[in-house]
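Appendix B. Extra example for self-study. Work through it before the problem class; the solution is given directly after the inputs so you can check yourself.
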Amino acid sequence: MAIVFIPTLLRPLTGGRGSVEAEGATVRQVIESLEMAWPGIRERLMENDRLRPNISVAVDGEVTPMGLLEAVSPSSEVHFIAAIKGGSAAVL
Amino acid sequence: MSTEQYTVVGTRPVRHDGVDKVTGRAQYGADLQMAGLLYGYVLRSPHAHARIKRIDTSKAEKFPGVKAVITAADFPPTPERMVDLGEGDTPLSYARGNVLAGAKALYRGHAIAAVAATSIHVAEEAASLIEVDYEVLPAVLTAPEAMQDGASILHEDLRTKEFGEQTGRVSNVSEHFRHTMGDIAAGFAEAEVIIEREFNTATVHQGYIEPHNATALWNNDGRVLVWCSTQGAFVVRDVTACLLDVPVSHVRVTPMEIGGGFGGKIPVYIEPVAALLSKKTGKPVKIVMSRKDVFEGTGPTPGSYMKVKVGARKDGRITAAQAYLAYEAGAYPGAMVGPGAMCVFAAYDIANVVIDGFDVVVNKPSTAAYRAPGATNAAFATETVLDEIAEKLGIDPLDLRLKNAAKEGTRRADGPKYRRVGCVEVLEAMKNHPHYSAPLGGPNRGRGVAIGFWFNVGLPSSCNISVTADGTVNLVEGSTDIGGTRTSIAMQAAEVLGIPAEAVRPTVVDTDSIGFTAVTGGSRTTFATGWAAYEAAQDVVRQMKERAAKLWETDAASVTLERGVFRSGEKSMTFAELASKIDQTGGPVVGRGAVNPKGAGGSFSGNIVDVEVDPETGKVTILRFTAVQDVGKAIHPSYVEGQMQGGSAQGIGWALNEEYYMSRDGSMMNSSLLDYRMPTALDLPMIDTVIVEVPNPGHPFGVRGVGEANIVPPPGAIANAIYRAAGVRMRRLPMNPPAIMEAIWSQRD
Amino acid sequence: MPAKVRVQTTINGEQTEFLCEPRQSLLECLRDVLGLTGTKEGCNDGNCGACTVMLDDRVVTSCLVLGVEAEGAQITTIEGIAKGNELDPLQRSFLENAALQCGICTPGFIVAAKALLDHEPNPTEDQIRLWLANNLCRCTGYDKIIHAVQQAAAYSREARA
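Solution. Structure tokens for the complete assembly:
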């Protein structure tokens, strides 16, 4: 199962946990899996079926431009990153 | 640094655009001339914060020679949505509001209206006849001021966000985020020495010598043609199309040669204005900013208020680190505090970390990126705190850093683990450099060190290569060339094809002529557009092998290419010989590459600097400066050295002299190159460079990118040197003579 | 609109005539009236050197000279540095030493440095830095520019030897 690192300000939703396991072959599936275990988390990460504009996702250390579509493997690490000015956290 | 592996990569050919640049032939945006051209001038707010009650343009419109006057009312009423500014998304109303103010002027210099006329002098004169009724409001100028309860509010609709959650609080804090790792309380409890300090840095500008310029023609077929000075033609295209509410396909942007950018020419300021003026007049309109407008109306980098607290054991191992970073975003949200937070402790392996970041709006120009944005501020804080710890523990400052250096597998507080990185290699290169052990040679002198990090980005790039019958190739790409990248890109293609760098003709083209290409910035151009060229060249090689196979009546799989020679069995042909036969073997050979690469590798950099401080005037002289940086692979070492020297010089200016000197009412009092004091040839010594190459496993040639990390360590290194020279710890930038004297005198008391 | 003045001058060795308003700077006349856009505008108040030209035997910032002051003078701009197809040693050495990145300051530096080398063929590093102190470069940190001037001086010494 992939490991998802929970941003500090979302930890109240996961009972204070800094990282949790989740299933899924894509980032979207991983978020669905998180939502089942920790209701309310999807709304903090997604809006209108997309990642919120000021949130990026990094899989195995790489911020991905593919967002929800990015593939996740059973040994992946997934990080959600708050980007200032939204979009990619890897800004200039 | 070995060139043994490669024939072209690692060599120093003359850049392809060089002759035009040393003869004055190269066409920069302001050089553009066109039949019927009108000249545009932007009227800007004299107030740092004011409600705009009424704008009366009638007198200006009647002035002889004036062809049109516009305000924000001339924008089509596009519904609110998010716009990609090339460095992340922003609400459309903010992007549009910064181009021409809506209900409020949010900083002195905020664009209010624009005039198109037969000459720039006429336009300027007419603009002074525009009558604006302002209701002046109190202004806030620093993050701490803006964060106070009861502070004057810039955006009544701005609510503080905390990681996707609207807190509902009306304030000037647009966003607060926090990174945590480990157990900070336990970490500090374990520490045997703890240093906690506060820092302030002033607003500084990228200082590119060429002011912003744009020419726009709203053509009779409804297409909007733009020629401008920009780091990202596709960003200009997309933002302009969005603000004008036309399809993206209606806008074509031609990036002219650019006179410096450093991040400040990523935002869009005058292109939509020129386009609207062209629409109204039916003529092309050119706008060139004055130097004053560049200072007051573009995007400097955030001033900041920071607290950094670090705890370490007596043996030098850091046990805990905490940072509070409040960065000024300027008039609209979007300070680069996120990257600052990524970089503040990025050079170190620390188990227990807390970082709080605040994006705060203030009544100053809306900030833009400046070379590793956010990281220089943060490193100034961290590197001086670490210097104090080293001194307290009696440990050599480089040894302290080596003891805690980030390595492959180190995790940063914002989440990711490092792949292969060169922090240790940079520190060792510094330690082993003769500069580090050279005698200082006089009184009032001191030596300081510091290191820094920038993560570098990938982002999309495209490239096409077509083969000419004489064995040369045309290479077409869309990355504005600010520092020699068309050559570093051409060299990567040349390496794959086995031909000399001179046999590749690179051209930077407009947005109609190449696939989407992201901005020239983020230290990405040699990395990502070079990769696209690599892919395009591989595509050419595949096709050329098929042609050779046809000629030799064999399988393409049996054809090899090595150092420019195709072989199959006993047969062989050079690239040029085969190129002369493409016509008879099937026609043109065109290769394409389109990438959106992962695998960007971070870059560590370090400085050793010797200074002399005059104890009577506080003047700091840089005696000797050594810049070290891990670039992965230096494609063209001369231009890599150039990046390191340029970033160092900017860092020195940032450290010693540069600042927006603000009056109480929010006016920049030194908006000229006389008083905004950037380093001249007299202020600097030769800048020695050491290129470290820890290849990036994520790139075909190991490139990491060099452009930015070099501006991160200088202020910290210089502050540490000043301490050793004059006995004072500086915690405010710039460390100019009055500041140093004040520190010296208060120490004496 | 003020009446235009007719100015007769010599630019890069060619007799030239143009019309300009009295308020137009020499920089504006070169760029917008004569189409000689090699000389650049960076600040328009004499503080960056991007507009450096020779006015008779003086190195000047053309933004602080009026167009009408060109009357009867000999002006050299970047367009006049190369001899036909052949680059000046300074231009060659700027290229060989990678002494430019964005290139916007380069015309001003080359005109100023040429004046230095014409006046002092063996300048020290300090002399070069002092002479070029009014030419701002934001990209290079000046290191490679200084080396390029030193190398151009060496080229000229070889040529004379």
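Self-check: Chain B has three domains: 18-26+458-595, 32-137+210-259+265-297, 304-456+601-748. If your reasoning did not lead you there, revisit section 3.
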